Each structure stands twice: as structure tokens, then as C-alpha cells.
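A protein record in our archive is deliberately plain, so that people and models can read it alike. The record that follows is passed on verbatim for readers who wish to inspect the format.
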Amino acid sequence: MSPELISVLALIAAFVVATTLSVNMGMLMLTMAFLVGMTAGGLSEEEIFAGFPGDLFVVLVGVTYLFAIARANGTTDWLVHRAVRLLGGRIALIPWVMFGIGALLTAIGAVSPAACAIVAPIAMSMAVRYRINPLLMGVMVVHGTQAGSFSPISIYGTIVNGVVTRGGLPTGPIVLFLGALVVNTVIAAIVFVTFGGLRLVGAGSVSAKSAVPAAASAQPALSAAGTGRVPGLSAGSAGESGASAEPAESASTGDEPIETLNRDRWLTLIGLVGLVVSTLGFGLDVGLVAVTIAVVLSMISPKIARNAPSEVAWPTVLLICGVLTYVGVLREMGTIDYAGEAVAGIGIPLVVALLLCYVGALVSAFASSVGIMGALIPLAVPFLLQGEIGAVGMITALAVASTVVDVSPFSTNGAIVLANSGDFDKDVLFRKLLIYGVVVVTAAPLLTWLVFVVLTPG
């Protein structure tokens, strides 16, 4: 049996064990990375550790740590209050505003995970406050960041267009941008209707004055935190259906009313603005910047920030990092390249195009979208140069299929949403994101292939 096949079978076995025995999947995948990497792959310990996603670890910890402080001092409640006032109290617009902000940030040059790290904590706080289905809100954020991610001046767009140009293929930057924008917008509309958005429309609005209670009872929120659920968010309740526009109760964040800005809130807002400017304007790592800002705020107000480390979603961080470490082992062993080359060698252009889209979607659901596109597009160059398949349509289909799946909880964007889900039950949200991710991985490659390859003239 080839090492590549052994690594795939081990991955399947790990998922079965983790599901049936309730073993922590992150720890299990770290174990599999060690055993499979050293025995079947002949990798050294250094090569195995090279697959550990240190940058994603810092992003998940740093962002959740920073926004735990922001929640503790009332900054997120203030932001929610201001946002609802700007929307005239129309709760149904909140998911679409989050979608639009994410799309705008990536369209003007933000890396998708950085944009998601900025938008997701606020969006999920709003979902808690107004009992919006967390799956609806999280998916809208991720699809929003992907909707603008292939603009001609974006990171993704620049990378893909550069790879295509170096391969001697015709480029279509506008087609690529509009393709990603339209596909993600259509999916977002379907998600909005499917997961309770219409009920939000029917529920009307709340007044800006009542948007965030200034002196809410602390006990319900404490109870919710203990169970991992917001009161009333059981299956079939408003939290899942989105039927209620009434704000959920939350713990009081101090003596200051939510409508006012005290010293700690001002400093936190300055820190959040600094996070946006430094990451989007200067390209600094969002995780390292978030950690730095959180440490400064902790030093200024140690009593408020003392419980923030315990609010970091450590089980989620371990899960994501363990799975991605094993994916790194697969990459080092050549399993991913082996699968891509096997597909490319079939020789039937339309079938190759479809299978490449599926390979891109499946692998990207567990790894870097940019890395996958950079590896798969060169594999597609030889048969695209034959002229039997339209190059622009194929590249668009491959790019969209490889990024629309970032809703998976194992991808960077999906992991950020899950880590910042606040009082929602993370286990429940993880399973729902996983199921939704499976649906997208199954359907998106086929649909993008049909639209951009089969139905689009060369």
C-alpha cells in the first residue's frame, strides 16, 4: 500500500474514531500526524511540526482574547448599539451589513482571514444580542469576505491573475471578480432565506433606545455562559429560527450605561481602529497585532481583563490546529500533489476540469485557499493551453470553488467564526458549520463547473 493511500485511510479512520468515541479530534489528529508522518511518510519531527499552523493559532487566540476584553468592558455592546441605531433598528439588515463590510474590506485589499477576524466578533455579538441564528450570521460573514476577495486589487485576485499570466494563459480579472461576487451573493441570499432571515424581516425592528439595555440582569447571561447557550436558544427557538427581534439579556458591563463611552471603551475602540489600520493599511499580521493590543489593554485595566484568557476558545483552537497539522503532513508526504496529478492525467478535459474543482474545494476546506489555487492552477495549464476548455472560465470556476468552501470549521475563516461564537454552544455550531461545509464542498464545484466551464463559451 502506498504511503499516500495510507495517509488518506488514516485520516478517514481518525474522523470515525473522533465521532464515535468523542475523542478530542485535535489531539487525535496530532497523534496521527506523528504516527503516520514518521512511519508511512518517513518525516522527521521538524517536518511534522512545520505543518502546525502557528499563524492561525495566534490569530484565533489573539482575536478572541482581544474581543473578550472588549465584551468585558462593554465596547462590543456599545458597537452593537450604535450599529442598530444606524440601521434604524431593522434587525434583518444586520447580516447583510456584515456581508457588505466583509466584501468591501477584501475588495480593497484585505486578506480574507484578516477581514473575517475584524467582522466576525462584532457580527456574532449581534447574533447573541438579537437571537439571530449563529449559523446564518457566521456564514454571511464568511461569504461576504469571499465575495470581494478576487477584485483586481485584492490579494487573492493579484495572486491568481499573476499565476495565470506566468502560465501563458489569457486573464479575465473582471470575470474572476464578478464571478466570485455573484456566486457568494447568491449563496448568501439562499442562506438568508433558509436559516431564518425572512423571519427577521417579519419580526420588524426594535427602537434604538431599547437596542441594548443599559442595566440588564446579570443572572441569565451567567447561566447562559455556564451552559454554552443563550437563554431561549434551544432547538426550534428564536435563536435557531431568527423569529425574535427582541434583544437577549446580557450581563451588565459596569456602572456606565452602554450608550456612553468611558475610558476603557475609548481605549478599546482606539485599539480596534489600530487593528484595522495596521492590518489592512500596513499588512501586519492580524493575530500579532490583536495580541499586542489585548496585552496593552490588560495592563491598563487588569481587573476587567483578568478573565479574558479563560474565554479563549481553547478546544476550538486545538481542534483546528491539530487537523491542519495533519494536512501539513499530507502535503509533505505528497498526498495532495499525488491526487492532483492523478486527476490531471485522466485526459478528458471536461472531466479533468470538474475533478480539479472538487480537489480544490475538498483540500481548501482543510487548508490555505491561496496555497491550493497556487498548486492546482499550474496543473490545469497544460490542458487549458490545448484550447478545448475556456481558460478564463476554468480559472474562475477553480478559484471560486476553492474559496467558497472557507465556511468549513477547519478553514481559517470558519475557525474564526467558531472561535468568536460567544455564548452560543460551540459544539452545536461546529456540527452545523461542518454539515453546511459538506453541502458546499459537494455542490459548489459542480455548479461553478457548469456555469463557468460548460455554459460559458471559451
The mean pLDDT is 80.
